[in-house]
Design a protein that fits this description.
Elements lengths: L3 E2 L6 E3 L5 E3 L1 E4 L5 H14 L3 E3 L7 H14 L9 E6 L6 H19 L1 E7 L6 H16 L7 E8 L3 H8 L10 E5 L7 H9 L3 E5 L11 H10 L3 H11 L3 E4 L4 H8 L16 E2 L2 H6 L23
Parallel strand pairs: 4-5, 4-11, 5-6, 6-7, 7-8, 8-9, 9-10, 10-11
Antiparallel strand pairs: 1-12, 2-3
Helix pairs in contact: 1-2, 1-9, 2-3, 3-4
Bound molecules: NADP nicotinamide-adenine-dinucleotide phosphate (NAP).
NADP nicotinamide-adenine-dinucleotide phosphate binds next to strand 11 and helix 9.
Keywords: Oxidoreductase
Catalytic activity: isatin + NADPH + H(+) = 3-hydroxyindolin-2-one + NADP(+); (R)-pantolactone + NADP(+) = 2-dehydropantolactone + NADPH + H(+)
EC number: 1.1.1.358
Protein backbone atom coordinates (compact mmCIF):
# COMPACT_ATOMS: atom_id res chain seq x y z
CA UNK A 1 0.00 0.00 0.00
CA UNK A 2 1.50 3.35 -0.97
CA UNK A 3 0.46 6.74 0.42
CA UNK A 4 1.46 8.73 -2.61
CA UNK A 5 2.63 8.25 -6.13
CA UNK A 6 3.94 10.10 -9.14
CA UNK A 7 1.11 8.89 -11.35
CA UNK A 8 -0.60 11.52 -13.43
CA UNK A 9 -3.26 11.84 -16.12
CA UNK A 10 -0.85 10.72 -18.83
CA UNK A 11 0.64 7.73 -17.02
CA UNK A 12 0.77 4.41 -18.80
CA UNK A 13 1.58 0.86 -17.71
CA UNK A 14 3.75 -1.48 -19.73
CA UNK A 15 2.25 -4.81 -20.73
CA UNK A 16 4.19 -8.07 -21.06
CA UNK A 17 4.05 -7.72 -24.86
CA UNK A 18 5.81 -4.34 -24.72
CA UNK A 19 2.75 -2.21 -25.45
CA UNK A 20 1.72 0.59 -23.09
CA UNK A 21 -1.77 1.20 -21.81
CA UNK A 22 -3.05 4.48 -20.30
CA UNK A 23 -3.96 3.86 -16.65
CA UNK A 24 -7.07 6.07 -16.69
CA UNK A 25 -9.85 4.29 -18.56
CA UNK A 26 -13.39 5.37 -19.39
CA UNK A 27 -16.00 2.58 -19.04
CA UNK A 28 -19.14 2.41 -21.16
CA UNK A 29 -21.21 -0.37 -19.58
CA UNK A 30 -24.93 0.50 -19.67
CA UNK A 31 -24.39 3.71 -21.61
CA UNK A 32 -27.06 3.63 -24.32
CA UNK A 33 -25.75 3.60 -27.88
CA UNK A 34 -27.48 6.91 -28.69
CA UNK A 35 -25.64 8.70 -25.86
CA UNK A 36 -22.26 7.05 -25.95
CA UNK A 37 -20.64 8.70 -28.99
CA UNK A 38 -20.82 12.13 -27.38
CA UNK A 39 -19.72 10.85 -23.95
CA UNK A 40 -16.69 9.08 -25.42
CA UNK A 41 -15.87 12.29 -27.28
CA UNK A 42 -16.22 14.24 -24.01
CA UNK A 43 -14.02 11.71 -22.18
CA UNK A 44 -11.27 12.03 -24.79
CA UNK A 45 -11.61 15.83 -24.70
CA UNK A 46 -11.21 15.69 -20.90
CA UNK A 47 -7.97 13.73 -21.37
CA UNK A 48 -8.86 10.04 -21.12
CA UNK A 49 -6.92 7.99 -23.67
CA UNK A 50 -8.36 4.59 -22.83
CA UNK A 51 -11.90 3.45 -23.67
CA UNK A 52 -13.53 0.18 -22.63
CA UNK A 53 -16.50 -1.43 -24.37
CA UNK A 54 -17.75 -4.96 -25.10
CA UNK A 55 -19.95 -6.80 -27.56
CA UNK A 56 -22.36 -7.34 -24.65
CA UNK A 57 -22.72 -3.57 -24.11
CA UNK A 58 -24.35 -3.22 -27.57
CA UNK A 59 -22.61 0.12 -28.08
CA UNK A 60 -19.19 -0.69 -29.51
CA UNK A 61 -19.96 0.83 -32.94
CA UNK A 62 -21.03 4.12 -31.33
CA UNK A 63 -18.05 4.02 -28.95
CA UNK A 64 -15.69 3.63 -31.93
CA UNK A 65 -17.53 6.45 -33.67
CA UNK A 66 -16.80 8.72 -30.70
CA UNK A 67 -13.09 7.95 -31.00
CA UNK A 68 -13.15 8.63 -34.73
CA UNK A 69 -14.98 11.95 -34.36
CA UNK A 70 -12.53 13.07 -31.70
CA UNK A 71 -9.52 12.19 -33.85
CA UNK A 72 -10.96 14.08 -36.82
CA UNK A 73 -11.35 17.21 -34.69
CA UNK A 74 -7.97 16.89 -32.92
CA UNK A 75 -5.23 16.36 -35.44
CA UNK A 76 -2.59 16.54 -32.69
CA UNK A 77 -3.92 13.25 -31.25
CA UNK A 78 -3.16 10.05 -33.16
CA UNK A 79 -5.06 6.78 -33.19
CA UNK A 80 -1.99 5.23 -31.54
CA UNK A 81 -2.45 7.57 -28.54
CA UNK A 82 -5.79 5.92 -27.73
CA UNK A 83 -6.36 2.47 -26.27
CA UNK A 84 -9.53 0.66 -27.36
CA UNK A 85 -10.69 -2.49 -25.56
CA UNK A 86 -13.62 -4.72 -26.43
CA UNK A 87 -14.70 -8.15 -25.19
CA UNK A 88 -15.96 -11.50 -26.44
CA UNK A 89 -19.21 -12.31 -24.62
CA UNK A 90 -20.00 -15.70 -23.12
CA UNK A 91 -22.44 -16.51 -25.92
CA UNK A 92 -19.71 -15.79 -28.48
CA UNK A 93 -17.20 -18.22 -26.99
CA UNK A 94 -15.73 -21.26 -28.73
CA UNK A 95 -13.48 -21.19 -31.81
CA UNK A 96 -16.07 -20.67 -34.58
CA UNK A 97 -18.29 -18.31 -32.60
CA UNK A 98 -15.30 -16.18 -31.69
CA UNK A 99 -14.31 -15.88 -35.35
CA UNK A 100 -17.85 -14.62 -36.04
CA UNK A 101 -17.61 -12.25 -33.07
CA UNK A 102 -14.32 -10.79 -34.32
CA UNK A 103 -15.98 -10.30 -37.72
CA UNK A 104 -18.74 -8.43 -35.86
CA UNK A 105 -16.17 -6.27 -34.05
CA UNK A 106 -14.57 -5.56 -37.40
CA UNK A 107 -17.92 -4.68 -39.03
CA UNK A 108 -18.81 -2.35 -36.18
CA UNK A 109 -15.49 -0.62 -35.51
CA UNK A 110 -12.90 -0.98 -38.28
CA UNK A 111 -14.14 1.93 -40.41
CA UNK A 112 -13.73 4.20 -37.37
CA UNK A 113 -10.64 3.00 -35.53
CA UNK A 114 -8.79 0.67 -37.94
CA UNK A 115 -7.58 -1.79 -35.30
CA UNK A 116 -8.37 -2.80 -31.72
CA UNK A 117 -5.74 -2.67 -28.99
CA UNK A 118 -7.16 -5.39 -26.80
CA UNK A 119 -9.81 -8.09 -26.93
CA UNK A 120 -10.75 -9.69 -23.62
CA UNK A 121 -12.43 -13.00 -22.98
CA UNK A 122 -15.25 -11.35 -21.03
CA UNK A 123 -15.90 -14.17 -18.58
CA UNK A 124 -14.74 -17.69 -17.71
CA UNK A 125 -18.33 -18.86 -17.16
CA UNK A 126 -18.49 -21.29 -20.08
CA UNK A 127 -16.37 -24.45 -20.43
CA UNK A 128 -12.74 -25.39 -20.99
CA UNK A 129 -13.49 -26.13 -24.65
CA UNK A 130 -15.17 -22.76 -25.22
CA UNK A 131 -12.60 -20.71 -23.28
CA UNK A 132 -9.65 -22.28 -25.07
CA UNK A 133 -11.44 -22.27 -28.44
CA UNK A 134 -11.96 -18.53 -28.03
CA UNK A 135 -8.34 -18.07 -27.08
CA UNK A 136 -7.16 -20.13 -30.06
CA UNK A 137 -9.16 -17.94 -32.46
CA UNK A 138 -7.93 -14.70 -30.86
CA UNK A 139 -4.31 -15.87 -31.05
CA UNK A 140 -4.62 -16.34 -34.79
CA UNK A 141 -5.62 -12.68 -35.26
CA UNK A 142 -2.82 -11.39 -33.06
CA UNK A 143 -0.22 -13.58 -34.77
CA UNK A 144 -1.41 -12.48 -38.24
CA UNK A 145 -1.94 -8.73 -37.95
CA UNK A 146 -2.39 -8.44 -41.73
CA UNK A 147 -5.34 -10.84 -41.73
CA UNK A 148 -8.37 -9.64 -43.73
CA UNK A 149 -10.75 -9.39 -40.78
CA UNK A 150 -9.17 -7.29 -38.04
CA UNK A 151 -5.83 -6.24 -36.64
CA UNK A 152 -6.00 -7.24 -32.96
CA UNK A 153 -2.97 -6.08 -30.95
CA UNK A 154 -3.29 -8.03 -27.70
CA UNK A 155 -5.36 -10.56 -25.80
CA UNK A 156 -6.54 -10.40 -22.22
CA UNK A 157 -9.07 -12.02 -19.94
CA UNK A 158 -11.69 -10.76 -17.56
CA UNK A 159 -13.15 -12.24 -14.38
CA UNK A 160 -10.59 -15.06 -14.53
CA UNK A 161 -9.53 -16.72 -11.29
CA UNK A 162 -6.33 -18.64 -10.64
CA UNK A 163 -7.89 -21.90 -11.93
CA UNK A 164 -8.85 -20.31 -15.28
CA UNK A 165 -5.40 -18.77 -15.66
CA UNK A 166 -3.74 -22.08 -14.78
CA UNK A 167 -5.86 -23.81 -17.42
CA UNK A 168 -4.55 -21.32 -19.98
CA UNK A 169 -0.92 -21.60 -18.88
CA UNK A 170 -1.06 -25.41 -19.01
CA UNK A 171 -2.61 -25.40 -22.48
CA UNK A 172 -0.17 -26.77 -25.05
CA UNK A 173 -1.27 -24.29 -27.76
CA UNK A 174 -0.65 -21.12 -25.74
CA UNK A 175 1.42 -18.78 -27.91
CA UNK A 176 0.22 -15.29 -26.98
CA UNK A 177 0.14 -14.57 -23.26
CA UNK A 178 -2.81 -12.69 -21.73
CA UNK A 179 -1.59 -9.20 -20.87
CA UNK A 180 -4.42 -8.09 -18.58
CA UNK A 181 -7.06 -9.54 -16.27
CA UNK A 182 -10.00 -7.14 -15.84
CA UNK A 183 -11.64 -7.66 -12.45
CA UNK A 184 -14.09 -6.15 -10.00
CA UNK A 185 -11.79 -4.47 -7.47
CA UNK A 186 -12.39 -2.02 -4.63
CA UNK A 187 -11.62 -1.99 -0.89
CA UNK A 188 -14.38 -4.54 -0.19
CA UNK A 189 -12.96 -6.90 -2.84
CA UNK A 190 -9.18 -6.45 -2.97
CA UNK A 191 -8.43 -9.96 -4.32
CA UNK A 192 -4.98 -10.10 -2.75
CA UNK A 193 -4.10 -13.71 -3.66
CA UNK A 194 -5.27 -13.46 -7.26
CA UNK A 195 -3.29 -10.24 -7.74
CA UNK A 196 -0.16 -11.87 -6.33
CA UNK A 197 -0.58 -14.76 -8.77
CA UNK A 198 -1.07 -12.33 -11.66
CA UNK A 199 2.02 -10.36 -10.68
CA UNK A 200 4.09 -13.56 -10.73
CA UNK A 201 2.83 -14.18 -14.27
CA UNK A 202 3.25 -10.61 -15.48
CA UNK A 203 -0.46 -9.99 -16.04
CA UNK A 204 -1.59 -6.44 -15.32
CA UNK A 205 -4.56 -5.79 -13.06
CA UNK A 206 -7.39 -3.72 -14.45
CA UNK A 207 -10.08 -2.60 -12.00
CA UNK A 208 -13.73 -2.34 -12.95
CA UNK A 209 -16.49 -0.92 -10.74
CA UNK A 210 -13.90 1.06 -8.72
CA UNK A 211 -16.79 3.18 -7.40
CA UNK A 212 -18.70 -0.01 -6.49
CA UNK A 213 -21.37 1.25 -8.92
CA UNK A 214 -22.42 3.48 -6.05
CA UNK A 215 -23.36 0.48 -3.89
CA UNK A 216 -20.99 1.47 -1.06
CA UNK A 217 -21.38 5.23 -1.39
CA UNK A 218 -23.27 5.36 1.90
CA UNK A 219 -20.93 3.02 3.76
CA UNK A 220 -20.54 4.57 7.25
CA UNK A 221 -16.71 4.26 7.34
CA UNK A 222 -16.38 5.78 3.89
CA UNK A 223 -18.78 8.62 4.75
CA UNK A 224 -16.89 9.37 7.94
CA UNK A 225 -13.59 9.60 6.07
CA UNK A 226 -15.27 11.70 3.40
CA UNK A 227 -16.55 14.22 5.96
CA UNK A 228 -13.41 14.24 8.07
CA UNK A 229 -11.05 14.92 5.17
CA UNK A 230 -13.41 16.80 2.86
CA UNK A 231 -12.98 14.34 0.02
CA UNK A 232 -15.94 12.88 -1.87
CA UNK A 233 -16.45 9.09 -1.62
CA UNK A 234 -15.70 8.85 -5.36
CA UNK A 235 -12.44 10.76 -4.89
CA UNK A 236 -11.36 8.45 -2.06
CA UNK A 237 -12.23 5.27 -3.97
CA UNK A 238 -10.57 6.33 -7.23
CA UNK A 239 -7.42 7.47 -5.44
CA UNK A 240 -7.35 4.16 -3.56
CA UNK A 241 -7.60 2.29 -6.84
CA UNK A 242 -4.83 4.23 -8.59
CA UNK A 243 -2.58 3.93 -5.52
CA UNK A 244 -2.96 0.13 -5.71
CA UNK A 245 -1.32 0.36 -9.13
CA UNK A 246 -4.42 -0.66 -11.08
CA UNK A 247 -5.44 0.38 -14.54
CA UNK A 248 -8.76 1.94 -13.56
CA UNK A 249 -12.02 1.90 -15.52
CA UNK A 250 -14.67 4.32 -14.33
CA UNK A 251 -18.03 5.01 -15.93
CA UNK A 252 -20.25 8.04 -15.80
CA UNK A 253 -22.92 9.50 -18.05
CA UNK A 254 -22.47 12.89 -16.41
CA UNK A 255 -20.12 15.21 -18.38
CA UNK A 256 -19.11 17.09 -15.22
CA UNK A 257 -18.11 13.85 -13.49
CA UNK A 258 -16.15 12.70 -16.55
CA UNK A 259 -13.77 15.55 -15.84
CA UNK A 260 -13.93 15.28 -12.03
CA UNK A 261 -13.05 11.59 -12.11
CA UNK A 262 -9.98 12.24 -14.24
CA UNK A 263 -8.96 15.27 -12.19
CA UNK A 264 -8.26 12.83 -9.33
CA UNK A 265 -4.93 12.44 -11.14
CA UNK A 266 -2.56 15.39 -11.27
CA UNK A 267 -1.93 17.19 -14.52
CA UNK A 268 1.83 17.52 -14.24
CA UNK A 269 4.20 15.19 -15.98
CA UNK A 270 6.31 13.31 -13.45
CA UNK A 271 9.56 14.80 -14.80
CA UNK A 272 8.42 18.43 -14.33
CA UNK A 273 9.27 18.68 -10.62
CA UNK A 274 5.84 20.20 -9.91
CA UNK A 275 4.27 18.22 -7.09
CA UNK A 276 1.08 20.24 -6.60
CA UNK A 277 -1.94 17.99 -6.51
CA UNK A 278 0.18 14.86 -6.09
CA UNK A 279 -1.87 11.66 -5.97
CA UNK A 280 -2.07 10.69 -2.31
CA UNK A 281 -4.25 9.42 0.52
CA UNK A 282 -3.36 9.74 4.19
CA UNK A 283 -2.47 6.71 6.27
CA UNK A 284 -5.75 6.75 8.24
CA UNK A 285 -7.79 6.43 5.04
CA UNK A 286 -5.54 3.64 3.78
CA UNK A 287 -5.76 1.84 7.11
CA UNK A 288 -9.57 2.01 7.24
CA UNK A 289 -9.87 0.84 3.63
CA UNK A 290 -7.34 -1.95 4.06
CA UNK A 291 -9.58 -5.04 4.10
CA UNK A 292 -7.38 -7.83 2.75
CA UNK A 293 -9.86 -10.57 3.71
CA UNK A 294 -13.00 -8.89 2.41
CA UNK A 295 -14.73 -10.73 -0.44
CA UNK A 296 -17.85 -8.71 -1.17
CA UNK A 297 -18.82 -9.08 -4.84
CA UNK A 298 -21.12 -6.26 -5.93
CA UNK A 299 -21.52 -7.16 -9.62
CA UNK A 300 -22.39 -10.40 -11.43
CA UNK A 301 -25.38 -10.97 -9.15
CA UNK A 302 -23.09 -11.16 -6.11
CA UNK A 303 -21.53 -14.46 -7.25
CA UNK A 304 -17.79 -14.22 -7.83
CA UNK A 305 -17.07 -15.19 -11.47
CA UNK A 306 -13.39 -15.78 -10.67
CA UNK A 307 -14.46 -18.82 -8.61
CA UNK A 308 -16.61 -20.33 -11.37
CA UNK A 309 -16.23 -24.10 -11.83
CA UNK A 310 -17.39 -25.86 -15.00
CA UNK A 311 -20.58 -27.86 -14.53
N1 LIG B 1 -15.40 -7.07 -17.43
C1 LIG B 1 -16.51 -6.98 -16.74
O1 LIG B 1 -17.17 -7.98 -16.43
C2 LIG B 1 -17.00 -5.63 -16.30
C3 LIG B 1 -18.03 -5.53 -15.35
C4 LIG B 1 -18.42 -4.27 -14.95
C5 LIG B 1 -17.82 -3.14 -15.48
N2 LIG B 1 -16.84 -3.24 -16.44
C6 LIG B 1 -16.23 -2.03 -17.05
O2 LIG B 1 -15.79 -1.14 -16.03
C7 LIG B 1 -16.48 0.11 -16.16
C8 LIG B 1 -16.70 0.76 -14.80
O3 LIG B 1 -17.45 -0.07 -13.93
P1 LIG B 1 -19.00 0.17 -13.58
O4 LIG B 1 -19.62 0.95 -14.66
O5 LIG B 1 -19.58 -1.15 -13.24
O6 LIG B 1 -18.99 0.93 -12.20
P2 LIG B 1 -18.33 2.24 -11.55
O7 LIG B 1 -17.49 2.98 -12.53
O8 LIG B 1 -17.76 1.80 -10.25
O9 LIG B 1 -19.61 3.08 -11.17
C9 LIG B 1 -20.41 3.72 -12.10
C10 LIG B 1 -21.52 4.41 -11.30
O10 LIG B 1 -20.94 5.44 -10.49
C11 LIG B 1 -21.57 6.68 -10.77
N3 LIG B 1 -20.51 7.72 -10.73
C12 LIG B 1 -19.52 7.92 -11.61
N4 LIG B 1 -18.71 8.93 -11.22
C13 LIG B 1 -19.22 9.39 -10.05
C14 LIG B 1 -18.83 10.41 -9.14
N5 LIG B 1 -17.76 11.18 -9.38
N6 LIG B 1 -19.58 10.58 -8.03
C15 LIG B 1 -20.66 9.82 -7.78
N7 LIG B 1 -21.07 8.82 -8.60
C16 LIG B 1 -20.36 8.61 -9.73
C17 LIG B 1 -22.19 6.52 -12.13
O11 LIG B 1 -23.36 7.29 -12.23
P3 LIG B 1 -23.53 8.39 -13.39
O12 LIG B 1 -23.38 7.69 -14.70
O13 LIG B 1 -24.90 8.93 -13.12
O14 LIG B 1 -22.44 9.41 -13.13
C18 LIG B 1 -22.54 5.05 -12.18
O15 LIG B 1 -23.79 4.83 -11.55
C19 LIG B 1 -17.76 -0.28 -16.91
O16 LIG B 1 -18.42 0.82 -17.46
C20 LIG B 1 -17.22 -1.26 -17.91
O17 LIG B 1 -16.57 -0.60 -18.98
C21 LIG B 1 -16.42 -4.48 -16.83
Amino acid sequence: MVNSSNLNKYSTSRLSNGQTVPIAGFGTYLIPAEKVTKLVYDALAAGYRHIDTAIAYKNQREVAQGVSKFLKDHLNVQRSDIWFTTKIAEKNQGYENTRKAVQQISDETKEFIDYVDLILVHSPKTSTKERLGTYEALQEYVLNPDNETLNVRSIGVSNYGVAHLEELFHWENLKVKPVINQLELHPWLPRVELRNYMEEHNILTEAYSPLTRGRKSDDPELLELSQKYNLSPAEILLKWSYLQGFIVLVKTENPKRIKENLDILPDYRSDSGDESGKLELNSEILRVLNKPDSKIVLTWGGVDPTLYKDE
